[in-house]
Amino acid sequence: MALDLEAIYTDLHRHPELSFQETRTAGVVGAHLTALGIPFEAGIGRTGIAATLANGDGPVVWLRADMDALPVEERTGLPYASTARGVDPAGNDVPVMHACGHDMHTTALLGALERLAATREEWSGTVVGVFQPAEELGAGSRAMLGDGLLRRVPHPDIVLGQHITALPAGVVGMRPGTQMTASDGLTVTLYGRGGHGSRPHATIDPVVMAAATIMRLQTLVAREVDPRETAVVTVGSVHSGLKHNIIPAEATLQLSLRYTDDEARERMLGRVERVVRGEAAAAGAEREPSIVIDHTLPPTINDPVSEARTADAFRRAFGEQAVTDPGLFTGSEDVSWFARDAGVPLVFWFWGGLDHDVYATALAAGTVDRDIPTIHSPLFAPVLHPTIERGVANLVVAAREWLA
Ligand code: ZN
Ligand code: ZN
Predict the structure, then answer these.
(1) N or C: which end of the chain has fewer CB within 10 A?
(2) What distance in angstroms lies between residue 398's CA and the mean position of ligand 1's atoms?
(3) Taking 80 as the threshold, does the pLDDT of residue 296 lie above it?
(4) pLDDT tens digits, 305-328
(5) Range(s) of the domain holding residue 127
(6) Residues with beta carbon < 5 A to ion ligand 2?
(7) Ligand nearest to the CA of 162
(8) Cα 376 to ligand 1 centre (Å)
(9) Which residues have C-beta within 8 Å of that of residue 220, sequence separation ≥ 6?
(10) What distance in angstroms lies between residue 136's CA and the mean position of ligand 1's atoms?
């Protein structure tokens, strides 16, 4: 029985689930693995699944896909658009969308396992399909590893993974060395003193403190980072207050920081702390702000030799033009922990999901950044074909390159 990958994709797209809540998704994956006769373990790192396709002696290749979705309200207008809602870790009711394309990753990995299982006579070795939860929290790979993943499935010789992106369908983007930056997610809480909105002099206003802090944080990359380095400081969330005429007692900021290596990370964390504490002191805060690191993602670094070999396999399979160097991505991934903990090389690539004409028009007009919705956008909408087929083919070609 052949999997209907389009139906699997649109079903997963309609039913996105937030990080560590991927129970339905894991159920769908498990049901298809069962139908394919591929043994698997579920519930690894809460909702993760590892499927083992053993086929005699030879190398062990891990293929990784992530399964979680984001608190984004879908605005694509697609017939299979999500209207799902979920409860975020803070207990809020939020819209949920597969705005990062992890539904495509999951679909492609199922398709690749099906294809590899159907062509067993052409290769030998072992393929482990790792369906990971909670990539968006930067916690899912650690959760699976912490739950004994390396003990529970054969040890890899290489870890392979892919992410859909806003490149034209049919294009693979990959580079040796640092492919994606490292990142940290921080929660900063600023403490003021609340009171009546008509009596600001009797309060310490955390709203103004937050505003000053946000603006000062925006000078870090512009004024303190060497222009030849890559770094990002984003304040993605700011919350304070409930009503016009009440000065609240505290404000909360959530920051996303990016850098290419560990030293740059240490420097930036120091700068952020200096600004946060400095602005609180300038405001006369009576209590030190709190700074909590919610998650840390390592840089995604492609082993140069393994990257070159995999890219060559893609060129042989899809043509010379099919592989481009997309440059450094300032997004981050937690896929690296699998390879780091196992002590083996990682190769991670991007694959395009955009209609060629739409992309070419925007490119010609110089409006790619404005007009092409990227991952995490409420408008992100990869074309179904050939994106699904190429997602499958990428994994199969790459896996076969490393299997015997
Ligand atoms: Zn994402
Ligand atoms: Zn993603």
Answers:
(1) N
(2) 23
(3) yes
(4) 999 999 999 999 999 999 999 999
(5) 5-180+299-402
(6) 100
(7) 2
(8) 6
(9) 231, 233, 268, 271, 272, 275
(10) 5
